[in-house]
Design a protein that fits this description.
single chain, mainly alpha, transmembrane helix
């Protein structure tokens, strides 16, 4: 992977959890449960298009890294740096890892 591809991959992986942390909760507060569905479609759909469609994230090698990994690691780090409880964050982190593994497995079933 080139240096430029590494920077683009890092930026794409950073923007996804940043948008989740910035927008998702406010959309749910404003619009209730439907706001969560709108946030899921808007944030995840837009970032998937940016990362995979436009090509911000460069996949190298045989392993696929699902966007759930980027979201899990980014949200966990943001929680820790903002002073949230480590124990609560680690549970979400574990579920993000499980989601990433599950997403990768399902994707491998199609290939």
């Amino acid at each position: 992977m080139t240096f430029q591809a590494g920077i683009a991959t890092f930026a794409g992986a950073f923007i996804f959890p940043f948008l989740i942390r910035l927008c998702w909760g406010k959309m749910v507060e404003s619009w209730g449960a439907i706001g969560g569905w709108v946030a899921a479609g808007f944030i995840v759909g837009t970032m998937w298009t940016f990362n995979h469609g436009v090509g911000a994230i460069t996949q190298s090698g045989g392993a696929w890294i699902d966007m759930a990994w980027a979201a899990g690691i980014g949200l966990f780090a943001a929680s820790i740096f903002s002073g949230d409880d480590f124990g609560k964050g680690i549970v979400n982190y574990i579920f993000a890892i499980i989601g990433g593994i599950l997403g990768g497995f399902i994707l491998s079933c199609f290939l």
